[in-house]
């Protein structure tokens, strides 16, 4: 009986313990990785299986919703989120060239080569370098949008280190897949603004355009989200260079065909930037991958879709966690 009482006490205390262990308000640190300095946060125990979150174009580590990060940590993972080079509190030390984004975008549409100061594979090496700096040998990788493209390169560069791959709202980069509208691309490229107020309005417009038609956005909430990101860091030139890295990237179909990492592909049926066939195409070219389509999900982590996303992702992560334990708290 005393044993049962002790067990009950321990179980009742687990949520509190997990909340303390998975505090998302941890300090942001930096690590020098080659020519870049990356800002990152590590949430959870160093001894737990590592899960690296790789954000998309222009996104900062704060764009991973705190409640989602906490839930992932509470499943027994050490969650590492970071700012890619050229955004947030991270920096790229290269000589920044003059960029004519309109000209390069036109070349992309015509099927011509695009000049970029660095590529997505360089960004994948950044992420692997960060893991080296943190003494993380093996890792689960979850990438969203451009982050999913970077994650593909990580699994190709170091398949022995990537225990599982989760690719959300991303693409193979193959020719012939449905393209976003010109209006949406214009919003995506519109990063320069004469003042803070206009920059916030532009970002709110972009967030609204990337949202699901099934969800009614609160404009003030979008402006608040834009304000938090702007006040943390605002580097429109860096975002343009990231966009060039995407445009300069050839098809990754051959790369995907090589992958043998356990992979989950998650895509929304209402994605306006990378329509659903992008996700279907990725899954079709990764052997033994699993595809989960989420009705109504667009190209943002909106509140209405957080639970469906977690329901898709968590079983995959737990199935491949590698330490033989389930949510070890």
Automatic annotation (TrEMBL):
Domain of life from the UniProt record: Bacteria
Annotated ranges, domain AB hydrolase-1: 49-299
The keyword Signal appears for this protein: yes
Biological process (GO), any one: glycerolipid catabolic process
InterPro entries for the chain: AB_hydrolase, AB_hydrolase_1, AB_hydrolase_fold
Record keywords: Signal
Signal peptide (UniProt feature, chain positions): 1-18
One annotated GO molecular function: triacylglycerol lipase activity
SUPFAM superfamilies listed in its UniProt record: alpha/beta-Hydrolases (SSF53474)
Protein's recorded name: Pimeloyl-ACP methyl ester carboxylesterase
């Amino acid at each position: 009986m005393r044993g049962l009482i002790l067990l009950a006490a321990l179980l009742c205390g687990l949520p509190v313990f997990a909340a303390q262990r998975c505090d998302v308000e941890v300090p942001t640190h930096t690590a020098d990785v080659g020519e870049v300095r990356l800002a990152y946060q590590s949430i959870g125990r160093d001894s737990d299986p590592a899960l690296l979150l790789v954000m998309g174009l222009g996104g900062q580590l704060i764009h991973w919703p705190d409640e989602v990060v906490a839930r992932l940590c509470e499943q027994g993972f050490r969650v590492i989120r970071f700012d890619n080079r050229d955004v947030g509190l991270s920096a790229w030390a290269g000589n920044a060239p003059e960029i004519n984004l309109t000209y390069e975008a036109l070349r992309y549409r015509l099927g011509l080569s695009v000049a970029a100061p660095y590529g997505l594979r360089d960004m994948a090496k950044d992420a692997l370098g960060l893991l080296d700096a943190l003494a993380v040998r093996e890792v689960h990788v979850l990438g969203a949008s451009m982050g999913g493209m970077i994650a593909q390169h990580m699994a190709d560069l170091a398949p022995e280190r990537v225990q599982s791959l989760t690719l959300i709202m991303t693409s193979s980069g193959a020719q012939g897949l449905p393209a976003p509208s010109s209006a949406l691309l214009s919003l995506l490229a519109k990063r320069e603004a004469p003042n803070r107020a206009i920059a916030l309005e532009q970002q709110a417009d972009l967030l609204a355009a990337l949202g699901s038609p099934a969800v009614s956005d609160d404009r003030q909430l979008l402006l608040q989200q834009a304000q938090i990101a702007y006040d943390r860091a605002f580097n429109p030139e860096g975002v343009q260079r990231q966009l060039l890295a995407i445009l300069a990237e050839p098809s990754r179909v051959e790369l995907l065909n090589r992958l043998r990492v356990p992979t989950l592909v998650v895509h929304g049926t209402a994605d306006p930037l990378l329509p659903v066939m992008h996700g279907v195409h990725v899954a079709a070219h990764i052997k033994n991958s699993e595809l989960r389509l989420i009705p109504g999900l667009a190209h943002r982590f909106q509140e209405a879709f957080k639970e469906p996303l977690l329901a898709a992702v968590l079983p995959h992560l737990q199935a491949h966690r590698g330490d033989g334990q389930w949510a070890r708290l």
